[in-house]
Amino acid sequence: MDANQLRRAFTGFFVERGHTLVPSSGLIPHHPRAPLFTNAGMNQFLPYLLGEESPPYPRATSVQKCVRIRGKDDDIELIGRDNTHLSLFEMLGNFSFGDYFKADAIPYAWELVTEIFGLDGDRLWITVHVDDDEAADIWHDEVGVPVERIQRMGGDNFWEMGETGPCGPSSEIYYDKGAEYGREGGPLDGDEGRFIEFWNLVFMQYDRQADGKLAALPRRNIDTGAGLERVLSILQGRDSVWDIDVLRPIIGGAESVTGRRYGADADTDVALRILADHGRGMTFLINDGVFPSNEDRGYVLRRIIRRAVRQAFQMDVERLVTPALVAATIEVMADAYPELARNHDFISGVVQREEERFRHTLRAGLVLLDDLVASGTTSISGATAFHLHDTLGFPIELTREIARERGIDVDLAGFESEMDQQRRRAREAATRSDEAGTGAETYRELLDQFGPTEFVGYSEYESKGRVLALVGDELFLDRTPFYAEGGGQVGDTGTIVTDTGRAEVLDTTYALPGLHSHRVRVVEGGLTPGQEATATIDAPRREAIRRNHTGTHILHWALREVLGTHVKQAGSLVAPDRLRFDFSHYGPLAPEELVRVEALANERVLANEPVRAYETTKEEAERIGAIAFFGDKYGEFVRVVEAGGRSVELCGGTHVGALGMIGPITVVSEGSIGANLRRIEALTGEASFARFRRRDDTLNRAAALLRVTPDEVPERIEKALEERRALEHELEQVRRQAAGGDADRLAADAVDGVVVARRDGGSRDDLRELAVALRDRPGMRAVVLGGAPDGGGVTLVAATTKESGLAAYDLIVDAARTVGGGAGKGKNPELSIAGGRDASKLDAALEQARAAAGIGR
Ligand code: SER
User: Fold this and answer.
1) Whose CA is nearest to atom 4 of ligand 1?
2) Which of 119, 170, 381, 760: disulfide with 159, CB 3.0–4.6 Å?
3) pLDDT at 618
4) Ligand 1 centre from 91 Cα, in Å?
5) Which pLDDT band holds residue 196 (cuts at 50, 70, 90)?
6) pTM for the whole structure
C-alpha cells in the first residue's frame, strides 16, 4: 500500500460503517481552547466534544495534518536523529460523538488492521490503561487477543490534548517487528525499537480543567489516531519513516539540491532527513497561513526554516535550498493536498526570502562566535547569547548547537535571565490587567441552558429579546441585533431597555462561540434576568461599518486582480470610520498598482450590483470558489457573501444591499507590517467625502494665497520655485561682487603687505572667505579681520602666507583672549579662526593683532 491507497482504505472502511468523511482542517486551529497548532484529528471537533455545538453527524473519519512542535511535545531536536519523529505528520482517525464507544471502537480497529491492512494478529500487542478492565475485557473476550499480549500502562495510556481540554484513558496497538529488533516482553518490558505503537484509541470522556481537575464531558466519545507514516513504514516493511513513499522522494530532493548522497555517512543522513522533514513542514505551514515571525506560530516556522538552512550552510551548500525542498514536497503531497500546487509560487517566495535573510544572519553570527572561540573562551556568556538572539536574530538553539560542536558551554541560566528581564520590560509596557478566565463557567452554563444567542442583526436593527443574565458589566440576551466582534468587524453599540432600566451597550463580543456578550453601562434604573428588553443598535454607526465591510471585500478582490491570487487575507479591521486590510504580498505596491486597485474597486461600486449572503454547505462554497482565509468553520454550513458578481467570500459579517451603497472607496495608505505582510487602509462613504472636502479646502487656500485658480496651483508653485532659484543665484553673484569691491578697498590700505580691519554684519564664513581672498592677492603677507556678526558674538580670522613666516594663530591669540574667547592652534598654520563674546573690546583686540603683525601704531 502506498500513502494514497492507505488514506483511501482507512477512511473508506469507516465510511462503510456510517462515518462522515471530513476533510483535514488547517494547521491553525480556531477554537479558543485549541493548542498552538492542530495537534490531533480531534481538534476540529472540539465544539462537539465539549458540547458547545451539537454534532452534525454522530460519527466521522478524517486524515488530519498535524504539527506537534512546541505545543505539548517539543521534539524538534529529535527530528532526523531517530526513525519516527516528524514535524508534520498525518493522522488517520475515526470519531464518535456520543454514539458508539469502546465495545465498537475496539473491534473496528482490529478488523481494519488484520483484514484490510493484512497484519498478522499474532504480532499485535495491546496496551490499556491500568484501571480500564472494560477495554481489556473487550480485547480479550470479544476480539480474542490472548491475555499475555494485553498489557497495562499508566500515564502512557491516558491521552490529553494539552494542559487543559478533552482527555481520557486510551488503548494502543503495537506491532512486533521481530526478535532481530530487540528484547521481547511487549511494549511494557521489551525494546522500543521492536514494538512500534501505531494506533491510539482514546475513550474521551473528561475535560481537564485549569486547576488540574477532571470534569466529565457531556457525552462519551471515541477519538482514535493512527500515524499515517508509522502505519506505512510497517506496511511497506521499512525500518523507518524516512524510507516510505511520502518521505524518501523528498530526501531525494534534498540530495539533489545539496549534492550529497543519502546513506553515505551518518551525519549527512541526519542532515538530509532534517532538510526533507523541515521542507515538508514549512511547505504545509505556509500553505495554511503561517508566516515567519518572532512570535508563536511564526516563530516555530522560522525555527524550522532556519534549522534547515543551517544544515545546508554547514555542508557548504551555497545555493538556496528551501525552494527546492518545497518543490519536492509539493511533487509528493499534491495528490492528497491539491491546494499546495496552487500556492507553490507563493510558498516558494516566502521560504526563499527567509533563507536569504537568514544566510546573512548566519554569516554575521558565525563570525562573532568564531572570534569568541579564537579568543580562547570556554563559555559563551548569557549576555552574548542574548545579543546574538536579540540583535542578530541568531536563535539560542543554534548558539547551543554550535557551542556544543566546538566543545564550549553556553550560560543558559544567564541567557534565560536576560530573556526574563526582557519579558518583564515587555509586560510593564503593556499595562493592561489580566482578567482572563473569569466567568468562563458562567458562559458555559448560559450556553448549556439557553443555547447560542439568536442573531437577528443581518436584517433588523431593533428587536425584542429576553435578558438571560447580567454578569458584572456583561449582559446576555436570548436574541439580539448586536453584531459580536468577529471576522475583523467591530462589535455593535447601542441601547438595551426594559420596563425598569436602560443600559448603554459599549461593545459586543463573543463570550464563547455563539454566545453574544453585550458590555453595558446601566444608565437608568436596573435590568433583571427574565425581563423583556428592546435592543437597538446605533444604526448610523452600523451603516458605516457595513459600507466598510463590503468595501473590504471589494478591495480584497481588486488586490487579487492586480497583484495575483497569492494575496491572502492575514487580518482586517472593519470599523465605522475606516477599514484596514492586511494581506500577504512580498513587496510594496507601485503607485500605479495602487491607483488600479482603487479604480477597479470604484468601478464595482458604480456598477451597483447587488450583494447576496446565504448559507450553504462547505462543499458548495468550495465549488463556487469562495475564498475562506481563516480556513475551517465548524459545522456543515458556512455563510457565503457575494459582493457583486466577482467577489465571493465566506464571511459572517454585515454588508450593504448593493455595491453603490458603499460610496467612494479611497485608499489612504499602504505599507509593510512585517515580512511579506502588507497593510492597506481605506475609507468609504461619508469618510471618503470628508477627506475630499478637507483636501479641497486645503487646495483652495493655497490657490487663494497664490492668487490663481486651484487647477493652476502646481504650475504656479513650480514657477515660484524656479524664480526663487534664479533670485538666489543672482543674490550670490551680487554678494561676490560686493566682497570683491571690499577686498579691493582693504588691499589698498595694506601696510607692508598686512591688513588688519574690522568688518561687521557678515557671517563667520563670510569673514573667513574675505580674509583668504585678500591674503591670496599679490604682495599680501597677512590679514586679520574681526567682526561682530549679526546676533552677537565676535569672530576673529587670521590668514597668512607661507613666505611671510607669520603663524596665523600667533596673530590673534591675544586678541581672542581680549574679546573673552580663545583661539585654537589648528592644523593649518596659515589660517586661524577664533570666537569671543565681548564685541565692545573688538577694536582694542584688533590693535593687539596689529602689534602682533608688526604694524602697530
Ligand atoms: N487524539 C489521539 C492522539 O492524537 C487519538 O487520535 O493520539
Assistant:
1) 40
2) 170
3) 79
4) 8
5) very high
6) 0.53
